[in-house]
Amino acid sequence: MSRSMGALAAAALLAGCSSLQVKTQFDPAAPYPGYKRYAWLASEPGQEQAAAIRDPGIRRLVIETIDREMGKKGLVRTTPDQNPDFFVSVIGWGRGRVEVTNYGYAYGGAYVYGPWGPSPAAAVPVAQVNEYVDGTLVLDFVDAKSRKLFWRGTATDTLTTPQQVPGVIDGAVQKLLAAYPPKT
User: Fold this and answer.
1) How distant, in Å, are the alpha carbons of 15, 87, 141 from that of 148?
2) In the list 5, 28, 141, 155, which could disulfide-bond 92, CB 3.0-4.6 Å?
3) Torsion-angle region of residue 46: left (phi > 0), alpha (psi -120 to 50) or beta?
4) DSSP of 155-172, one letter per residue?
5) Cis, peptide link before residue 181, omega less than 30° from 0
6) Residues of 65-97 as b/e, b for ≥16 C-beta within 10 angstroms?
7) How far apart are CA 136 and CA 114, in angstroms?
């Protein structure tokens, strides 16, 4: 069920916290106080995910960030063979987007001087082109006994530069896990 995530795309998932959107879904009947120990579902991202998502460095950064924030909540990471209370899975993806803004026309100068004297300069079109990556990070918690999903957090954002990735991952994970456990 887990396609361990970590992606420039997945992490690219988010950027400039101003547009970061976090949503959660949860089972209100789940025994949240009983969930103390977790283990990662160990499966590598498949070919269906973007190449950046399969980047081991980004995946490691995402997992380390989630582990850190889970530790702050008193949750303890174990291995699957140590009877965890729940499993954690993270999936991510990103999609490139180009945005073109046309500002109309501009003039190169007030006048162009030629053999017949000054004349108005020619108008030229003015446009701005920006490239973005819209990305999403999905964090799932699955009950170890029933194997049912009991909590899901989704963070979505737009990334403009690769340098934003570490900060974006950190902000997204913090905001996601601030919503766990849910206030039922």
Assistant:
1) 31, 10, 9
2) 5
3) beta
4) EEEEES-GGGHHHHHHHH
5) yes
6) bbbebbeeeebebeeeeeebbbbbbbbbbbeee
7) 56
Burial status of residue 27 (CB atoms within 10 A of its CB: 0-12, 13-18, 19 or more): middle
The answer to whether the predicted template modeling score (pTM) of the entire model surpasses 0.85 is no
| 122's tokens | 């020619």
Q: What region does 6 belong to: left with phi over 0, alpha with psi -120 to 50, or beta?
A: left
CA angle at 74 for the pair 73 and 80, rounded to the nearest 5°: 110
Q: Cβ–Cβ contacts within 10 Å for residue 30, how many?
A: 20
